[in-house]
Structures are given as structure tokens and as C-alpha cells.
Amino acid sequence: MNYADIKELDIQDGDGARVSIYVSGCHFHCKECHNKEAWDFNYGKEFGQAEIDRIIDLMDNDYISGLSILGGEPLELVNQKGLVPLVNQVKERFPDKTIWCYTGYDFEKDVLNDMYKKFPFTKELIEKIDIMVDGQFEIDKKITDLKFRGSYNQRKIDVKASLESNSLVKMAFGDEARYENREEKVPAKAPKIIWITSFVKEKEKKSKIIEPAQPVYIQHYTLPKEQKIELIHSEEFERIAAKSILR
Length: 247
Prior knowledge:
Elements: E1 2-10, E2 17-23, E3 45-46, H1 49-59, E4 64-70, H2 77-93, E5 98-102, H3 107-118, H4 120-126, E6 131-134, E7 155-158, H5 159-165, E8 170-171, E9 193-200, E10 203-210, E11 227-233, E12 238-245
């Protein structure tokens, strides 16, 4: 197994401050992946005991909450075999620190009901992982600065609870409200009407604004990045409507 990078301090890929390893090799090739160089299984350097020792040394600090494993794709079979010694030694040395793993595979279909049953090294690896974030990155479901993942289709999974129940046990990221209604239609109800004062051709007039379902910053006629607005002008009023929600 090769690896692309080892981060000494990572606060984006799991709870608390973490050490992260990016393995090389991935066949998913997600559109607009931010780590394309790691698609190549030969990219980077060979991973071995020296790198494991380095990771354990980096984790031997009270402020480090655990290890995060990313890629590339950690659950490519060759990478699983390379990661087993790492997770075994990390858990032996730091039993109370968590291990997160990011994968493009579907946890239920590909991991729990396939690889976990077929391969002893998969079973050994998965049983040392605490949290798994599954699902491929989807650019049309990307929201800037989502918590601990790249697109909102990805799920946070309690691995140990899932193994015990032999079924998916999902966890909340903590910011689900930001995206949970993005694909639902706006409820059929009367819009809230706000009256503001504006000045047109040196004459004061009132403008009628119909408020959309999502927040609108009227002062600058701007919206969050996920939305766009359509300004409809007439002699009597000025209406701002959320014309669509971009995904």
C-alpha cells in the first residue's frame, strides 16, 4: 500500500484534533474530487512500520482525539490489507481514541453485507473502526463547509453498533438542518409579506416584498450561495422571490 500524506493535526475530518492518513488508490474517480492525485495506486510513498510508528508518536499527545483514514479509497482491498497493522497497533496503544474512516463504498451493501463476510482482513479492519463516513462525493450535493464531509449524501455511521445489530446505525453530523429539506417542495402556504421603504426617482414609495422559504438578505438583494433570486419590477411594487434552489 502507498500513502499520499500524513497530517499531524487535522480538525476537519472527525471530532476534535486528529492525525490523518491519506492512502493512495481509488477507482471511484468522483467528479471534481479534491484529491485526484491519490487515485493512482502508485502515488506517494510506500506505507510500512516506520509510518505506523510515526503516526503513533504523533497521536501520543493529550490533545489528539484519534486517527482519521482517508484517500484515495481506504477500502480498496490492497489498502485494507495495508491498514490492518495500523489500526491494530493504534487501538492497542490508544484504546480510548477513535478511528474514523472515509469511504466511497456503501456501508450496508458493499461493506457489511459483502466484504465483511468475504475477507478476514476486512473483518479485522472494520472491527477496529469507530466511525465510518460512507458514500461517494457528489458535486451537485456539495455545500461549502459541511461538517466532516464533502457532500450531504454522505452518512456518518456508528460501526460498532452496526456490527452488533447487523444493520445500519446512523449518527447525526450536527448540521443536518442545513440540507435536510433541500430536495423538498416549498410548503403550500401564503407567503409572508414585508413592507419596506425605497426611493425611486426622488419619490418615496413602498415596495412589497414576498419572502421566500429560505433567508433573503434584502439590503443587498443577495441570497445564500445555494439560491438565486429573480427581481420582478413594475410601477406598483418590487417583488423579490426565491425563484429556485440550486443543488
